[in-house]
Amino acid sequence: MAMVCLTDFEEYAKAHLSKATWDYYAAGADECCTRDDNLLAYKRIRLRPRILRDVSVSDTRTTVQGKEISFPVGIAPTAFHCLAWHEGEVATARATEGLNTCYITSTYSTCSVEEIAAAAPSGYRWFQLYVYRERKLSEQLVHRVEALGYKALVLTVDVPYTGKRRNDIRNQFRLPPHLKVKNFEGVFEETSVPEEYGIPANTLDPSISWKDIYWLQSITRLPIIIKGILTKEDAELAVEHGVQGIIVSNHGGRQLDGGPASVHSGFCTLPGYSDRQAVIISCVIYQGEEGVREVLQILNDEFRLSMALSGCRNVAEISRNLVQFSKL
Ligand SMILES: Cc1cc2nc3c(=O)[nH]c(=O)nc-3n(C[C@H](O)[C@H](O)[C@H](O)COP(=O)(O)O)c2cc1C
Ligand SMILES: CCCCCCC(=O)C(=O)O
């Protein structure tokens, strides 16, 4: 079957995964209002195309941290890729290296950070981190990824507790026994009851606060990017605390139901703070590395075409002026 757009990959994933795994990937919290709003908000974006601007040559390249990437789309951190494909995150890392963009590796990967780095040695990677009650655990992860050449820490701050994902509860979703959160191999094994998703419950620290940013800065030389900011107040606090970046995100609507759509916050609440973050998920299920490569290529092609049809020859020519939100 020819895979033409991202929806094709989503349909393939739904047809080929077990119900519990599909439900986990597709989950939103509670009534899924925020998850659904994320998609609706993208559909409300309208572009104001400019014409007669010679778009015979178009260049999608841009830079992040001074490093050139092929286009302004990266892979958001997502857990448990081995549920979708036997090589899991290793396949994702290879494809991302091939397409020269950024892969934010999840703490809850089913391949270790070492395996991922070895599989794609020249890949551009950031590491997504949580703060654990046991700070040493976070600290050890930070030191491992620093040594492996990951280029930034993405601190996820919207999971003081896991959101209530109803289907996961109904399905009693958990990692099957042959899969492990490889970054923690040997760490939790003896203390692991009760569990949530196959991870020992209550390990994340819900008392995390702004002072922990100073703690994190004290143990790393890597840039820190906070993921999960949705308000101007918190964006300002992030700047005051000296972090290098923020990711405007509601965790795919999997945490607080009732929060705003990420893309709406990015454009309307936080203009000047945020750029659009694009996310890919279902592709790894479709032929692993090849599937991720195909999806990135489709996104790249669609981005290039939309850019040209809007009258932009390169990323620098895309301005806020190009974008408007239509009313519901
Ligand atoms: C299956 C799945 C697993 C995810 N795992 C993680 C994770 O391990 N760490 C994390 O910070 N975010 C995780 N996320 C959230 C994504 O990084 C991302 O925020 C979300 O899919 C897109 O929503 P946004 O545009 O509001 O960020 C996960 C999302 C999905 C769908
Ligand atoms: C015990 C917390 C599990 C979270 C798993 C990864 C994640 O962030 C998700 O949204 O799913």
TrEMBL record:
Tell me its EC number(s), please: 1.1.3.15
Q: Which GO terms describe its molecular function?
A: (S)-2-hydroxy-acid oxidase activity; FMN binding
Q: Which domain of life is it from?
A: Eukaryota
Q: What InterPro entries does the record point to?
A: Aldolase_TIM (IPR013785), Alpha-hydoxy_acid_DH_FMN (IPR012133), FMN-dep_DH (IPR000262), FMN_HAD (IPR037396), FMN_hydac_DH_AS (IPR008259)
- Share an example GO biological-process annotation for this protein: fatty acid alpha-oxidation
Q: Which family does it belong to?
A: Belongs to the FMN-dependent alpha-hydroxy acid dehydrogenase family.
Q: What is the protein's given name?
A: (S)-2-hydroxy-acid oxidase
